[in-house]
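Journal club prep, notes for RB
We'll compare a predicted complex against what the paper describes. Inputs for the PBG case:
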Amino acid sequence: MKPMKLERAETSRPAVTGELARPAASADQGSPLGAYPQVRMRRNRKSPWSRRLVAENVLTTSDLIWPIFLVDSGDARSPVAHMPGVDRLNIAEAQRAAEQAAKLGIPAIAPFPYVERSLRDPTGSEAIKATNLMCRAVRAIKSAVPEIGVITDVALDPYTSHGHDGVLDDRGVILNDDTVAILCQQALALAAAGVDCVAPSDMMDGRIGAIRRALDAAGHDEVQILSYAAKYASGFYGPFRDAIGTNATLIGDKRTYQMDPANSDEALREVGLDIAEGADMVMVKPGMPYLDIVRRVKDTFAVPTYAYQVSGEYAMLQAAALNGWLDGERVMMESLLGFKRAGADGILTYFAPEAARVLKAG
Ligand code: PBG
């Protein structure tokens, strides 16, 4: 680097900052960053010790949240069609999964229920019952493995006969405030069952504040809220909807409540409102196609920010790996590190136990 030339470049363009302030990076003109051949970026990459030293981000097991699927069944496990390696678990098997997670050092699991078709109705009335599959599973998991964090969705879609996250009027329009009232009762049932954190994934307006007030009024002020704050109407949820049986029930789509994939500023408004209403942590979902949103949210609000590597992301990586088209372990670890680089504090991922094993093995 030539300091004289650098100074001249800076004084001649005082008002311009950032990219434009930099003179063209040719050797004769000089660059504040230096230039080839004095600078050779590859020097820092020449050996493993040096690459480790200059690494800017790191993935650890403490960054992982493991979503699992529950089913009320005599069979311990039943496979999820389009998520190779993922099974629905009965409660006893879910306890074992929680033990496994704790052993691997995974901080939290996030169970999702496959609800019997006969228990689904237009208002999702099963969702608020203390004896439903989720509440029974939460009790069983917390009694078997008290130290594991249990985070549960608050949303009606597994329980409604029409597959929507809310209740509908007779024209099929989502009733926001009526839905929020039911979500509060669902959150209370889960809190009474011993859940550590509720995660409203429904995208109704005002639900975070309402759930916070309901929890506090019932003495559950220690129950955390992880808000699915910026949740997009995405095609990447397909395999999940098979896993919980909502592809079969869903009428229409979720575009009147989940966000338009075209939008980014709107995500900041959603996140800002949820924080103001009392969210302890926020989530962006899906993950890989929305890393720009993760970065903006983290930079803007500096709150605990999570990303959900959703079922379709898992499915596409697994499918390619099983076909021998990609190195499965390598792209799994690379995709998870990408979330960290984008600013995520943690990742909900079906790869959690696999990734934890890889991390443990070093
Ligand atoms: C339901 C919910 C969905 C997911 C998490 N909670 C799907 C949806 O909104 O239809 C998706 C998770 C995944 O695809 O892995 N409220």
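Talking point for the session: Residues 153, 155, 157, 165, 201-202, 237, 240-241, 310-311 surround PBG (CB under 6 Å).
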